[in-house]
Amino acid sequence: xxxxxxxxxxxxxxxxxxxxxxxxxxxxxxxxxxxxxxxxxxxxxxxxxxxxxxxxxxxxxxxxxxxxxxxxxxxxxxxxxxxxxxxxxxxxxxxxxxxxxxxxxxxxxxxxxxxxxxxxxxxxxxxxxxxxxxxxxxxxxxxxxxxxxxxxxxxxxxxxxxxxxxxxxxxxxxxxxxxxxxxxxxxxxxxxxxxxxxxxxxxxxxxxxxxxxxxxxxxxxxxxxxxxxxxxxxxxxxxxxxxxxxxxxxxxxxxxxxxxxxxxxxxxxxxxxxxxxxxxxxxxxxxxxxxxxxxxxxxxxxxxxxxxxxxxxxxxxxxxxxxxxxxxxxxxxxxxxxxxxxxxxxxxxxxxxxxxxxxxxxxxxxx
Length: 367
Known about the structure:
Layout (H helix, E strand, L loop, with lengths): L6 H10 L1 H11 L4 H34 L6 H4 L6 H18 L9 H7 L2 H26 L1 H27 L4 H22 L2 H32 L10 H4 L1 H14 L6 H16 L1 H27 L13 H19 L2 H14 L8
């Protein structure tokens, strides 16, 4: 899907993604796994059908204007469109990508799917699949319909900021660890969408590197939540406490990835969030300030979770096994990425410098 430059192939792989994820949730999930899988499938397929209609409409419009009927992205970028036609096609693409990302208020499938899916499927959902929606905005929707995107950018920015605050508030009141992390992931995706909406080289660079950072940090936290549930059979944060003394290796990794999740300087999430907020501030200072308030919410609920699990009074009166060598090696590799990208993100920023300049029209400088 990430390699497709033909809109038909892109749509084909976009839909094929649903099949393994549906069965991973439906067959190997827990709780109300069938209901969660069906909700995820129906939400996503509904948005995707609108995108299919938009792709067909763009194909016909390009053919009518040029005499060449094609799904190739480079040719479709040159399609002349009336303003209303452009807005309708952009809205269809936007809805499809907004469901997958997700963007508020099209996130209804997310908490149940993330919490009922097995850990491996949750990693795919949060670490990879959510990025496909943002990639679609960056690679297809905005370049294909720049005038319509500019017209609807204020709406997208408002929805992204509302999503950040709303997700943080919902995360704060959760006691189920996986649901808390699901809402946290939803809020962080709001930052990425806000960077896309600002459409400056600085904010776009932040959004792209934050997609990488979010996949690493959130994926690691979901891994740790799955490991803890596997050992105890529990997911309620109120059931734990004093894990720092009982399973110190697990606790140390949980603390590290939690600090990265809240954007501590020197760790990977700080780099992306700083670039996004700096880029957004140039376009809309108000949106940047409100989004910064969302980071404060992230700080509150993350530290509250850390306090409950690692340093609160002991509530689980039984022994828990610490990390195995396999788990230790897996988490250590992710920890190295968290620290490496936080201290020295230059290789990734250099890698995306030219693509961001080309996508954004070469306006301004990329950090």
